[in-house]
Amino acid sequence: MALARILVTLSILLLSNLINAHSNEDKTITFSTPWIRLLPPTVMHTAAYVTIDNSSNKPDTLLNVTSTVVNSLSVHQTKNVDGMMKMLSADNLQIPAHGKITLAPGGYHIMLMGLESSLVENQEITMTFEFKNAGEIEVVFPVVKR
Ligand SMILES: [Cu+2]
Predict the structure, then answer these.
(1) How far, in Å, is the centroid of ligand 1 from the Cα of 28?
(2) What are the distances in angstroms from CA 55 to CA 26, 31, 69, 81?
């Protein structure tokens, strides 16, 4: 019993710390480990990956992704359709309340098409993500060889 009470007290303490951390910045959407895959210089398209976290108690919707240095950005999902890997567009991607969406190779990704010039390793590309509730958020993506 005593142990259970200590555990409950501990988890309440941890929880209140988390809540404080979020209310400090008032940011409901946060991004972690953004990266863009470096492809050979002749390939004028590539993909970007990131984990999007939603700390609010409402789902949010990704409406648009833009960048001043890439002509066309769109959200795609790689899917196995009848044994063939296909890329389907994934407009209006939903980030669940108190949840996250991971964009990773083999699944969701942001497709960069019509690059004006080839990317170089460690180059940084800024993208603006527009959410229905959270508004516009800028994220810097490093170009990584992986
Ligand atoms: Cu794609």
Answers:
(1) 27
(2) 10, 11, 30, 33
| Position 21 in a domain | no
Element (H, E) at 42: none
Range of the domain at 36: 27-144
Distance 84 CA to ligand 1 centre (A): 14
Ligand 1 centre from 3 Cα, in Å?
51
Residue with tokens 């497709």: 111
Domains in the chain, number: 1
Nearest alpha-carbon partner for 56 in 75, 82, 29: 29
Distance (angstroms) between ligand 1 centre and the Cα of 14 equals 39
Distance CA 48, CA 139 (A): 11
| pLDDT tens-digit readout, 85-123 | 999 999 999 999 999 999 999 999 999 998 888 899 999
CATH number of the CATH domain containing 111? 2.60.40.1890
Instruction: Kindly state whether residue 49 falls inside one of the protein's structural domains.
Output: yes
Q: Considering the domain boundaries, does residue 1 fall inside one? A: no
* pTM, two decimal places: 0.80
For residue 51, the CA-to-ligand 1 centroid distance in Å is: 16
